Amino acid sequence: MEHIVIIGNGISGVTLARHIRKNSNKKITIVSAETDYFFSRTALMYVYMGHMKFEHTQPYENWFWEKNRIELKKGFVQTIETHSKTLHFAKGDTLQYDKLILATGSKPNKFGWPGQDLDGVQGLYNKQDLDTLEQNAPNNKVCNRAVIVGGGLIGIEFAEMLVSRKIPVTFLVRESSFWNGVLPEGESEMISRHIKTHHIDLRLSTNLKEIKADENGRVKSIIIEETGEEINCNVVGLTAGVTPNIDFIKKSNIETDKGVLVNRKLETSVPDVYAIGDCAQQREAIGNRRPIEAVWYTGRMMGETLAQTICGNPMEYNPGHWFNSAKFMDIEYQTYGWVFGERNRPDYEKHFHWIHKDDNKCITIAYHKDTKLFLGINTFGIRMRHEFFDNVLTKKWTVDKVIEHLSAANFDPEFYKLHEKDIVTQFNSETGSTILLSKKSWRKIFA
Amino acid sequence: MKIIKHTGLVLFIIALTIFTGTLFTGSFGLTKAEVEEYVTAQGYKSEVITEALEKAVSTEKELSIFEFSNRVRDAYQASNDHYDNLIAKYDAEKNWDKKGEQYQYKIYGKPHTLSYNLAKNAGSGYVKENAGLMWWLTFGLGIIGALLFILPNFILLGAPGIKNDGVFHKAATNRGWIAWLVLFYLVTFYLLLYFKADYVVNWTYILDPISEFLNGGKASQWFVYGFLYCTIMTVMAVRMFIKYRHNKYQILRTTSVLFFQIVFAFLIPEIMTSLNMPGYDFKNAFPLDYDFFFEWNIEKLTESGAVGLFILVWGTILTLVIVPLMVYFFGKRWYCSWVCGCGGLAETLGDPYRQLSDKSLKSWKLERWVIHSVLVFSVLMTVVTLYCYFSGAESFLGIHSQWIKDTYSFLIGAWFAGVIGTGFYPIFGNRVWCRFGCPLAAYLGLVQRFKSRFRISTNGGQCISCGNCSTYCEMGIDVRAYAQKGENIVRSSCVGCGVCSAVCPRGVLKLENDSMDGRINPTEVLLGNDVNLLDLLNKK
Ligand SMILES: Cc1cc2nc3c(=O)[nH]c(=O)nc-3n(C[C@H](O)[C@H](O)[C@H](O)COP(=O)(O)OP(=O)(O)OC[C@H]3O[C@@H](n4cnc5c(N)ncnc54)[C@H](O)[C@@H]3O)c2cc1C
Ligand code: SF4
Ligand code: SF4
Which of A150, B13, B222, B393 is the most buried (most CB within 10 A)? Predict the structure, then answer.
């Protein structure tokens, strides 16, 4: 029986294992050094905030693995010997494989800041980070102030976590407005304002210079690059992005760049070795997507796809239209298709922006300035239907048609106040159109 | 703000202490004349009961309710023992005529109920004489305290949004010592209410004036329960309004259950009683209203003229037509989360405990067995009762009609719905009864599962498996298990509370009514992946 060994029990490795099991009888082993069972990294924040217990982050009950004949091995893989198809563990034991899948995820970026390895300086990626944080910042008596460095999606989660325990937070963001490398101006500014309403000391256009230690080697303060200001703090959170967690793979003969290089079939340079999830790097980017996508659902999709290949139905990884979601404190964010921020915006991309007077809801629709082709939408504080926009993108609707049928896209809970009328009115007045809002349901539209 | 909150808590605890303390107050006794009058009014034939009762309660001594209850129960026991001895004696003598005669002297009824009936008129003391003041010191102070505790949340909790910070850090909401203390209090409360009503007779005095105002009669222990129920729901609804003020579905649903509880379950029956009609809760559907088809109820209704007849027809149509039809259009939520009294309490008083339900597959299996057994039990009981009612027989299918009714009332009506169903909120979550015990929920659930337009739609590939939805599902549904596969949630037990949708940080879940086509959509691969792969696997 063919032995499939997967390094990494995250979403990509586990999805792959589940799908191989559905389609075959192969022997499957998942290796991980982090936790005994698969858990949802995306929920780490909720454990610290007391919304959930750690066990709630585990999507499958513990009996699931044995029942599905998925073997779990806890251990840290130190070296991969591809010619003998052997894994060597830190504890000295070994494991033979017939096919190997690398699904080793990411690790937080560190940019060589002085003091970045001090006690009290940490990232937020794995279970151990959560445990460390519980030690470093159990409450605002032990931790009088924390500084978060790096204004991305994990940074804002980290800040929200600390605020939930009433720990004062200073948030250093390199950009001039929160996440404006990705978000268009109006949205980025709304989120920046929202962050401040949560009493977070948001410092824009601000870089970290160094982290200072006290006599015990614990963080004592940080220095700001631009002003030289010193801020006293007990915890420094490093959330300036992630990179593939592949140090041990670099020692092998598997070809790597930033991540493990793979082709569209997710094959690495070595036969019978594949890579999926955060650690995989496409040799050529797919469409507008980045070569490395550290996103939950792309890991899952790679797992779904590779399972087909491994079970004898070779298939290329061919993701559909881009989408994603996040939450900035109280404001939910969803995106479908492509809407670019200032920095990367192609010159044909035009934006329509609507913002609610309460300053907690807005949308931006991107379209082609000549053809009026709908390119994508960002929506804040209003939930929208994935299936609607997936169809719209496939069918290549114009922006006018999308605006006309915007009601059908709404996915907010029942009885919520609707804003489509407002949006259409504003669109009409800005573009001189005369669109009437249609009442047709999305099922009827795409029937 | 913090200070106001703490003051509120202190006031509430004082009120609760006074409320509990009243049980130990007052002195109980009846004059001989009162005893005689009572015995005549009851139509007791026993020749020894009057004397026994007089000896027991017509005394100079100041009796507490507990002593009073003891003595009264002993008196009844003595009277019954007296005749049992005679029965045994004539039996030994084979004197059948004499033996047969003795049975009419026996007095039936639950000892604590007999004692309650006497005690209601026998009490005197500060509480009874100062009902108004006592109301303010217990209910009044309790309401004020609770509101002072709750209202500051409007500011303390910050901007509208999901407010679950620290839920699993607190002893009250994470099965800590506070939770166990609350459980103990609630369980004791229900045990007294259902099985030792005479011990809580002092509470009825506090509400006598209100009861007299509403229905012309004095308050019974059930009036106390009803009034307390409405009060608690109202106060805890205020908490819901603040906690979920960003979510209109939650606001409307809470308003609705509150309305149905106060108007339908409480006021209308009281007013009907005051008009000499049978008091009836028009929304309480059989088989949750398990004694609707009991002989005494049918008799009471048929004897009450047009109103009674209307109720009989309404109750039957409600269960057979309205309930399933509404479930077809809106799902069982229209009842369980918008109308029902049990659901109403669970969604207000019980909301802080929703995260404690068990999500394991095991408990789902157990749930299906238990709840459907209760449904079968209740239907069987009703069939036996109705058969016996119309045929005049004592039993049917070998089941004794009185026995099955008593067993059901005791096991399901009192223990399951009350003691366990509500008493265990702080440990097992707020819907134990609705999930495992309610026969109406089982019935609604079957309709919802197989013939309904309701479902919880999942939003394509957006789920990040975080588990908020499953954690906060009071019915113990593993919502995530469906959402992370891109599958709609169609489950018989879902009461449509909408909280899974509210807590989801990625906007994945939407409760909606739509066509039955494609409502159940098992998927292999989620939206967003290669269209060819989707086609290949999902249409397989
Ligand atoms: C706090 C946080 C919030 C996030 N929120 C979102 C979100 O909202 N939406 C979203 O789309 N994405 C989110 N992400 C990103 C998302 O979680 C990742 O993209 C995803 O988890 C990657 O999955 P993976 O299976 O590729 O790797 P991982 O989940 O990282 O799993 C890799 C596993 O491999 C193990 N491993 C690595 N090397 C070895 C070795 N040598 N030996 C043994 N085991 C090894 C690791 O210990 C780890 O357990 C978030 C990430 C974090 C940290
Ligand atoms: S599935 Fe959602 S709506 Fe249904 S009972 Fe659970 S939390 Fe409520
Ligand atoms: S809460 Fe939302 S994102 Fe989280 S597991 Fe449930 S459906 Fe998925």
Answer: A150
pLDDT of residue B540 exceeding 70, the answer is: no
CATH of A323-445, one of 3.40.50.150, 3.40.1190.20, 1.20.200.10, 3.30.390.30: 3.30.390.30
Long-range contacts of A419-425 (CB under 8 A, 24+ apart): A419/A354, A419/A356, A419/A361, A419/A382, A422/A354, A422/A356, A423/A354, A423/A363
With cut-offs at 50, 70 and 90, classify the pLDDT of residue A32: very high
**Of ligand 2's atoms, which has the minimum distance to the CA of residue B497?**
8
User: Please, what is the average pLDDT of chain A?
Assistant: 97
CA distance B389 to B391: 6
The boundaries of every CATH 3.50.50.60 domain in chain A are 3-107+243-310, 121-240
The partner residue sitting opposite A323, judged by closest CB among B512, B528, B533, is B528
Residue type, A423: I
Q: d(Cα A191, Cα A341) in Å, to the nearest integer?
A: 14
Q: Where are the domains of chain B?
A: 27-123, 169-353, 361-439, 454-538
**Please, what is the Cα angle at B390 between B389 and B393, to 5 degrees?**
65
From B361, which residue of chain A is nearest by alpha-carbon distance? A61
Amino acid at the residue B516: M
Q: Which string of b and e fits B273-283 if b means at least 16 CB within 10 Å?
A: bbeebbebbbb
CA distances (Å), origin B242, targets B32, B147, B431: 56, 11, 22
Q: Is the CB of A103 under 6 A from ligand 1?
A: yes
Ligand 2 centroid, distance to A420 Cα (angstroms): 28
What is the SS3 string spanning B371-400? HHHHHHHHHHHHHHHHHHHHHCCCEECCEE
Judge whether residue B87 has pLDDT over 70.
yes
For residue B320, report the distance from its CA to the centre of ligand 3, in Å.
36
Whether the Cβ atoms of residue A366 and residue A339 lie closer than 8 Å to each other: yes
What single string gives the DSSP state of each residue in A162-211?
HHHTT--EEEE-SSSSTTTTTS-HHHHHHHHHHHHHTT-EEETT--EEEE
DSSP of B42-74: HT---SSHHHHHHHHHSSSS-B-HHHHHHHHHH
Instruction: Write out residues 178-197 of A within 8 Å (CB-CB) of B.
Output: 197
- Taking the centre of ligand 2 as the mean of its atom positions, its distance from the CA of residue B497, in whole angstroms, is 5
Question: Which residues 254-283 on chain B approach chain A with CB closer than 8 angstroms?
Answer: none
Partners of residue B521 in chain A, C-beta under 8 Å:
none
Place of tokens 């004539």: B90
State in words which class domain A3-107+243-310 has: alpha beta
Return the closest-CA partner of residue A364 out of A437, A355, A343, A331.
A355
Cα–Cα distance for residue pair A11/A18, rounded to 1 Å? 10
Predicted confidence band of residue B276 (pLDDT cuts 50, 70, 90):
confident
Predicted pLDDT at B528: 87
| Spatial separation of the C-alpha atoms in residues A169 and A202, rounded to whole Å | 8
- pLDDT at position B85: 94
Q: Alpha-carbon distance A340 to A321, whole Å?
A: 15
Residues 71-130 of A with CB under 8 A from B: none
Distance of alpha carbon B32 from alpha carbon B71, whole angstroms = 15
ipTM of the complex: 0.96
Residue A342 CA: distances (Å) to CA of A71, A92, A274, A353, A372:
48, 51, 36, 14, 20
Q: How far apart are CA A321 and CA B527, in angstroms?
A: 9
CB A70 within 8 A of CB A31: no
Place of tokens 């910050």: B158
- C-alpha dihedral (A410, A416, A422, A428), degrees to nearest 10: 20
Structure tokens at B467: 């588990």
Question: How close B250 comes to chain A (CA, Å)?
Answer: 10
The CATH class for the domain spanning B454-538 reads alpha beta
Class of domain A121-240: alpha beta
Ligand 2 atom 1: residue of nearest CA: B494
